[in-house]
Amino acid sequence: MHLSNLQFEIQNEQQNRLTAAVEAFLISFMAIITAILLPQIIFDYFMQNGEFTQAQSEFLANIPTGAYAIAAFFFVYALIGNYLRGRKIRQLRRDIELMQYAFDEADLSQLESESAPESKSSQTGKKKATSTSKKTASASKSTAKKSTAKKSSSRRSSKK
């Protein structure tokens, strides 16, 4: 994927997270208002008609429970959705870092300007990142071997 596409996806996911959080808040707020006001309104309606049975009383008692259940369900739904979006955002940020470390600035500008398919560019980026990390690892191993050799030779000369 292109760098700008990854950044756009991150912004889109962040916007979706915010939207889901606001929706969860509003639905919870409306559920609380419904649980408080709706039973009283329905009770007043039934009392005006003069017909109030036991079944209607049980229905009124269950309205707050239903409203709170809906609020809790949507809250959990939004929480899980935001967690999954957060994971996707972290993965996209890692992909951006990988692209930045795998290519220098000239390669990045050339890659973004090309209209190559996404799969080819991501595979190329992964191959270059792997080769770069292998080169870095081999360089650090050789540096470690040189420093170990210097330490052992200095120990030998200090013993003499």
What report would you give on this structure?
The chain has helices spanning 3-49, 54-102, 105-113, 118-159. Mean pLDDT is 74; it is low at 126-160. The chain has one domain. It is rod-shaped and about 80 Å long. It starts with a helix and ends with a helix. The chain is an all-alpha fold and 160 residues long.
Q: In brief, what are we looking at here?
A:
With 160 residues, the protein is mostly helical. It is 92% helix and 0% strand.
Search tags:
rod-shaped
Average pLDDT score? 74
Distance between the termini: 61 Å
Domain tally: 1
What general form does the structure show? Answer: rod-shaped
Q: What's the Cα radius of gyration? A: 31 Å
Strand content range = under 5%
The major sheet is characterized as:
none
Contiguous runs where pLDDT drops below 50 for at least 5 residues:
126-160
Structural class, from helix and strand content? Answer: mainly alpha
Query: How many distinct helices?
Result: 4
Summarize the helix and strand pattern as letters. HHHH
Amount of helix = over 70%
Strand tally: 0
